[in-house]
Amino acid sequence: MSWFAENKEWFFSGAGVAIIGAVFTFLRTLSRKRKSEPQTPSATTPILQMTVSQILGDISSRPPFQRDEAAKHYIGTRVSFSGILYYLRKQDENFVHVTMSPKDASWATVQFIVSVKNYPEFKVIREETPLTVEGTISKIDNREVYLDLISMSSG
């Protein structure tokens, strides 16, 4: 307390206020950055044992006002789905947007981006090819589930 009494002029001067403000701003920025960093699933992150149909059914069983919030609870969840290639759209020379029809819900789609460098078979793959994908749910919109791809197999 005696330090504060001896340094009160400096503390309340422009320099003291600026230093304290800078420290506070730095700590607040650091705290926000940690909260906003996405949690990347690891090999030990459990895979949700639900199908596309079960996830979409759970969301649609809610009252309409609650569906958006229910869908948000699945974001970031690690899943594995099987189905067939429904549609492929080339984004550029390195990536394709894939639409898969899940095995258990032909009325729904699972969508994800694939690097043709990592999966060169997508340069020649045909519709109706069986696919199994593992990823994290990034978005759910009506009858569409969007994934951030972790791994995939075809054939």
How would you portray this structure in words?
- With 155 residues, the chain is of the alpha+beta class.
- It folds into 2 domains: 2-36; 52-154, Beta Barrel (OB fold (Dihydrolipoamide Acetyltransferase, E2P)).
- It has 5 helices and 5 strands.
- It has helices at 2-6, 8-12, 14-36, 52-60, 67-72, and strands spanning 78-90, 95-102, 109-115, 130-141, 144-154.
- The radius of gyration is 24 Å and the shape is elongated.
- The mean pLDDT is 85.
Strand fraction band? 25-35%
CATH architecture of the largest domain: Beta Barrel
User: How do the SSEs run, as a string of H and E?
Assistant: HHHHHEEEEE
Number of domains: 2
Quick tags:
single chain; 155 residues; 5 helices; OB fold (Dihydrolipoamide Acetyltransferase, E2P); 2 domains; five-stranded mixed β-barrel; alpha+beta
Task: Briefly characterize the structure.
With 155 residues, the protein is an alpha+beta fold. It has helices at 2-6, 8-12, 14-36, 52-60, 67-72; strands at residues 78-90, 95-102, 109-115, 130-141, 144-154.
Element layout with pairings:
Blueprint: H1 2-6, H2 8-12, H3 14-36, H4 52-60, H5 67-72, E1 78-90, E2 95-102, E3 109-115, E4 130-141, E5 144-154
Parallel strand pairs: 3-5
Antiparallel strand pairs: 1-2, 1-4, 2-3, 4-5
